[in-house]
User: Which sequence fits this backbone?
């Protein structure tokens, strides 16, 4: 199964993580969540949602908890994708590598492939 197949495929496991782990944890820390203008998010087009990273992981989890109709794909810094097992796990839970200039200018071209994977 390619990365594209893994990312595109609706996942029961992802849904279970979303509703039975992420949402309860998020709701424990944040009693209310308000999503404004969710109807403006295109259903069949790629969208970039960019949390400001002030709360690190909680910002990303807010998207998972608040936009629970979607199976969100996340981007993470590429240097964590070094071991095969880690790559399989992260790809399975819809996290893809993104390369930065500090990873080497030539590695930035790899982002084109990653962005192609996330496009419908």
Assistant:
């Amino acid at each position: 199964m390619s990365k594209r197949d893994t990312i595109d495929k609706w996942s029961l496991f992802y849904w279970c993580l979303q509703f039975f782990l992420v949402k309860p944890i998020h709701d424990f820390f944040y009693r209310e969540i308000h999503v404004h203008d969710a109807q403006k998010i295109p259903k069949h087009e790629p969208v970039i949602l960019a949390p400001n990273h002030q709360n690190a992981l909680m910002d990303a989890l807010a998207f998972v908890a608040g936009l629970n109709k979607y199976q969100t794909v996340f981007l993470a810094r590429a240097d964590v994708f070094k071991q095969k097992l880690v790559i399989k796990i992260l790809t399975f839970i819809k996290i893809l590598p993104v390369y930065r200039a500090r990873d080497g200018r030539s590695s930035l071209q790899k982002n084109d492939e990653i962005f192609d994977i996330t496009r419908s």
In short: The chain has a mean pLDDT of 80. The CA atoms of residues 22 and 61 lie 7 Å apart. The first strand starts at residue 74 and ends at 77. Strands lie at 74-77, 95-98.
